[in-house]
Give the backbone structure.
Amino acid sequence: MNVKSCIAKFILKLFGWKAIGEKPNYKKYLVLSEPHTSNWDFIFGVLAMYAYGAKYRFIIKSEVMFFPLNLLMKALGAIPIDRSKKSGQSNIDIICEAIDKTEEGAIAISPKGTRKKTTRLKSGFYYISKRLNIPVCYGYLDYKNKIIGLGETRFMEGTLEEEMKYIFDFYKDKTPKHIENNIF
């Protein structure tokens, strides 16, 4: 266990949280970060990735990449996504390109795509996983039990509808910080 991992575990413990589960044994993988209803999810998620000793990056909207916040975000592993599509590339293309450039590690992504209330998950993670043939790990925060976890890791082998049903079943008992914004 390295120093960053020990410090992250200590900070989580100070807040009353514990990290459970094991980092997947794959060179590259996606981590679904759900439920996502608060800015605290990001802070606890970063601490958890350090606690697991995982090399990771995360998807973030480019609007938050302004000085000086952009320096911190880049240092933490941000992959900014310009949602305006000015670049001519799709978000999936941009993320796949970033993963291709990464030698190893996790790419954290929130399929909900927002902290606010929404009625559906975005499907980009499914297409990224299929295109790059990398597995998806179900990462979660459970505020009721103060647990950050890495659940099952699996390849997206079913249809999009089958995989979405599986995801909803997995996350249905995880309690977000803001229950009114929960999709599961």
